[in-house]
Amino acid sequence: MANELSYLNPAFPMPVAADVVINADAMVGTDGTGHAVAASDPRCSSIRGRAEHAVDNAGGVRGALTLLVRGGSYFQDQDGTITRENEGERCYVMGDNTVSLSDAGGTRPYAGVIIPAQLRLTATSKVIVFFGRWAVSVPTPAKGRS
């Protein structure tokens, strides 16, 4: 979790929703009241960043615990639909650590933007995703230019 450039994206505290378990390094979103939930939680409405540590509020009340969350760019697992041609496009939550090009008919929360990388993307490779509340789609270079 330590990142030498973490000062560029400081972690921010978020109160945790009731009856939630969030693993370290998992994508973190908010529920309708602004409390932290795991990305795969049905109450998740938008992604705010990545969990800096694990938190277990199973059986606990809303706001009883606080979680440090950091936005920015991170490697995430993918469902096999993302290739280099998708760099700069939006991706959606498929699990706590997995993204997809599909929003499943509007049922999956927006995760962030696939960041261009000088890596060969295959159907099984991780992708770099910029997530947080300021993530927007970015234009990609024309074919044949990098």
Structure, explained:
This protein has 146 residues and is mainly β. Helix content is 0%, strand content 34%. The chain has strands at residues 12-15, 21-22, 27-30, 36-38, 46-51, 55-56, 66-70, 72-78, 90-93, 98-100, 110-114, 127-131. The strands form three sheets. The chain has a five-stranded antiparallel beta sheet with strand order 1-7-5-3-4, with no helix packed on it.
Strand order of the largest sheet: 1-7-5-3-4
H-E string? EEEEEEEEEEEE
Radius of gyration: 15 Å
Number of strands: 12
Distance between the termini: 30 Å
The portion of residues forming beta strands comes to 25-35%
Report on the biggest sheet: 5 strands, antiparallel
Fraction of residues in helix: under 10%
The whole-number mean of residue pLDDT values reads 83
**Tell me, what's the shape?**
globular
Structural class: mainly beta
Poorly predicted ranges: 1-6, 136-146
* Number of helices, counting only DSSP H or I runs of 4 residues or more: 0
User: What's the oligomerization state?
Assistant: single chain
